[in-house]
Fold:
Amino acid sequence: MKTLIRVGIVSYGAYVPMYRLKAAEVNRMWNTSGEPVEEKAVVALDEDTITIAVECARQAVKRSGVNPAQIGAVYVGTESKPYAVKPSGTIVAEVIGATPSVSTADYEFACKAGTEAMQTCISLVGSGMQKYAMGIGADTAQGKPADALEYTAACGGAAFLIGPAEESIAELEASYSFVTDTPDFWRRPKEMYPRHGNRFTGEPAYFKHITGAGKALLAETGYKSTDFKWAVFHQPNAKFPINVAKMLGFSMDQINPGLISPVVGNTYAGSSPLGLAATLDVADPGDRIFMVSYGSGSGSDAFVWKVREPIKNRRGGPKVKSYVDRKRYVDYATYLRHRGQIIA
Amino acid sequence: MSVPRYWREEKSRYRLMGEECIKCSAKYYPKTPVCDCGSTEFKPYKLAETGRVQSWTVIRNAPLGYERFTPYVVALIELDDGVHILSQVVDVEPEAVKTGIKVEYAFRKVTEDGQAGLLQYGYKFRPVVE
Amino acid sequence: MRKVAVAGIGFTKVGEPWERNIKELFAEAALGALKDAAHTEIDQLYVANMMGAHLQGQIGMGAMMAEAIGRPGLPAVRIEAGQASGGVAFNEGVKSVASGLSDWVLVGGVEKMSDLLPESVTTALVGVEDQEYTAYTGVTKTGLSAILHRLYSHEYGATPEEIGWFAARSHDNAVGVAHAQYAFKLSIERVMTSPMEADPIRMMECAAVADGAAAILLGPAEKETTGIEVAASTVATDHLSLASRKHPLILEAVKKAAAKAYEIAKVKPKDIDVLEVTDDTTIDGVLSLEDLGFAEKGRGAKMVAQGATARTGEIPTNNFGGLKARGNPIGATGLYQIAETVIQLRGKAGANQIPDAKIGLAQSMAGVGSTCSVSILRRV
Structure:
């Protein structure tokens, strides 16, 4: 897909909360021995998807130098909405000062809700409807006790202010969305925790859609994996993104800066967005970035970004690494308290 | 839990927007109808988002609505523009708070009206993340 | 303006009288004051109460208490000024008599805090602060005092133990006091090893939940021969929030009310023989002592620790136990202070008597000093 007006990322913001639960602590609790990631990020008692989205959005606005009143859209993608009905986006828009001349809604598409939000913002700016539009992916994913996903269901997010390519730090060359009805993971409204198809979430779901979107976009653009300096893939654990990178011909060096799941966990709608933010934190003008998200249900959004000169002056304040390195470990009981899983 | 009361203070709490007296330049947070100098003319004033802890306490026996968060720190903060503010300080162990530590604005959940009621968000402060 | 005298006093034992409601408590104090004055006429009733709306869901206490004391029809109103309600109601009563609009004015205060759980009482107490920006932070009244406590130590080098002495000294004076909530000594060790309430203030530095009622009958000095005159009664306010104050450790409302009172009564701090100050926490007592003029700013804690406010010290303070030991049934507290001052001036304090007490000062204060009343009484 290409836009009529050339667009790009004008600025970005990211956030990871400071508490961590080690896989070893999960193992201590359940007498198990898994380690899909080393540790995962856990919200403070007073954080949720909205506060995370706001943190990301505020940083993006600050770095952009743009008058927030000119931001014409705020779309938040998440599967852990604090309100089932009431948009997170209105609160984000109000905090950053984008109201009242703004469009907003919350998106759900499991872990690719954030990139869906970005696709919408790309189309708003690319069609000329808005000059600036912000797409955010953020989650405080719910992990069922003793389930395999408890090791990885984590909290975090990133925000991207989309605007004119000539003002951007990374121009969008093309994007592609690849979606099928593949029920690998879902949550019914009154259920606290999602259900998943275990091994079914691998080949027919994650790998099929990422390689589907990835190969299609490579074909459309004519690029090979070696044309890219960096690559970012959805990171539900430490292994999957490494495997899918290999399948598409990308190297460890290319995915390393964006691969933070081993120490942050799977931030769901924040996952590939945070990976992109971490990559932008170290990228140089001229670098090309290949990005493919994945959301259960299922689908992938693929993007080609070309980093531009302005990036050098728009990375002020804490980087993703600052948030990753800012940490305090909690024990399992404290983790439950923080996640509101203690009945009291 | 009053929806209008929460909504009325949103911009002020979300954006740390106070006001400045046009006549004598005194800064107010929150805004006030009449300045100590007698003037009723004000212009919007955005508070600095960073400052230092002047003094603090640790709340262990909380008022209604805040029990879930104990123990938590409430501090008197001197912002970098000279305005003072009372606020919780989060993302730090109570024992680690010291006079003079640098803090910055953080948008957080303040309280919630049970399982079904309104979520109240607003400003808190946290040690600066570099 | 004519001179006002105290004709009679009455009060209940401070504690947790579970079977008695606010009307019964109020009536006991009110009838006690009338009996003490050997007088039956009342022209005006003031009812001091802070949290009746929260604690009992009861408003309109003016008319309620007029009925409760058998006087339906009496002009009556509830006076609320936070924790200073008692002292401020007293001020209203004094103005009523001084102006000539009323002859005999009954000022009674009541509070029944034990009706609700501690967290509800905590919430009600912080009601005197700005709800949208102070109570909003989740701070409590004790928490605000704790912020001052720490700032005081930081600024002046006073140790937490020196500040903690205020509680021990108040308790010393409660021994043998029939109406006191906690009529026993409290050692400084016990104070300083009690659990943290709101760091750095410890539990034993704070007055507890209490129920009680106290009443004062006022009349024109020309008609009243008991010889206890109101030499001055003043009220002052201050910015509510510590964040709005230029010097948080200076309680401007206390300074203002005190300065005006000293001017009207034509006395200085050194002329005061007996003193009742607000020690709902130790640091409130210390700061009050300083801003009333009895200690230099920053020296109050050391003074108290060294015995200046003890019975044998330069300024005997909280002579029946103060808020900490006699107790602090909020709306009534200011009136307990005045009643106790009257007892001292009458020479009827028994083992608690400060010899030759002629002039007494009582200070009632709301929040961390947003309202303060100062009453100076004189034996003539």
